[in-house]
Amino acid sequence: MEECMPRKPSKRVDLVATGAMGVLVALTIVGRLPDPEHHKFLLLDIVVGILAVALIPVALRRPVPGAIALAVLAALSPAATPPSTLGTLNVAMRRPWRPAILVAVIGTVAHLIQGLWQPIHGLPFLWFAVLDVAVHAALLGWGQGTQARRQLLESLRERARRAEAEQGRRIAEARSLERTKMAREMHDVLAHRLSLLATYAGALEYRPDSSPEKLAKAAGVIRTGVHQALDELREVINVLRDEDVYEGRPQPTFGDLRALVDESREAGTTIAYEDQVADPASLPPATGRTAYRVVQEGLTNARKHAAGHPVTVLVSGEPGDRLRIELTNPASNGTPLAPGSGTGLVGLTERVQLAGGTLDHGLVPGGGFRLEASLPWPS
Length: 379
What we know:
With 379 residues, the protein is α+β, with helices and mostly antiparallel strands. Helices cover 64% and strands 9% of the residues. It is built from eleven helices and five strands, in the order αααααααααβαββαββ. A five-stranded mixed β-sheet has the order 1-2-3-5-4. Helix 4 runs antiparallel to helix 5, helix 7 runs antiparallel to helix 8 and helix 7 packs across helix 10. The chain is rod-shaped.
């Protein structure tokens, strides 16, 4: 059975308790001297008192056996009453209620024996018994109440420690999720940028007969794009290193869709863009950002897997309904212009689902590939 106290008493506590009990035992013995009836028990009182004081360190370290031994001595002489009282209180404060009740009962019985053998002059035995029972009941209640309060405080401290650890874990998880989200955003931007560079590089490779002006323009676009891609890659690395470099970076909105389409057109992709969105200004920013990423991923995949083929982009919707995005392009019949990781559509599906929408993609009858997303648009 484990003790309820956090640790065993120190030597300093032993000395203080032993000294205090020694003083109380001496006062008890001296207080009995005026009664001539007790003179014959003086030697017994002294011996019992010395033994009781000597048992104090034992009672502090082994509460139940020590308290029982002190109760036995208290049955022989009132000199052991102060140490026995301390032993009973110590057990009540450090042990469960069953051994505490047992020790209290033994202490009560021992003092009843003491009252029968060495009665106090002028105090009837009945009142002595009442006081004996009341004192030991009070010691038991005091000790158990103190123990319960200590256990409650320890439980509250443990809960506070666990709550703090849980809060720290949640903060770490939130930061990790936020870094993943930011890295995914940067991945989409970087993949789009690299696909544009691959398109321009492919044009230089397959059209070496172009005029010097066109070659110079394409080379300039590639050089600028490479610098931009390097900057964006550096941001991805810093985000994954937990650096707050992404804070404040402007996020794309639904209004940036046309610029995205124009950028792809400048890279040589033929795009039929149709915007049938009613009141785009009321579109929630998060929904507009998700729609932008859907179109961006669709155009990136079209350049990778169906370079040179036209792409159709249809965006429609209205408040209170849903925002629908559909991209179609002919299926690839050759080697992709740029290798892909195969995770773009997986991440895009997760992004759309987190926004409360659905994403569907795959081959369509008659050849071709379709990417279709549906996002909620509350009124």
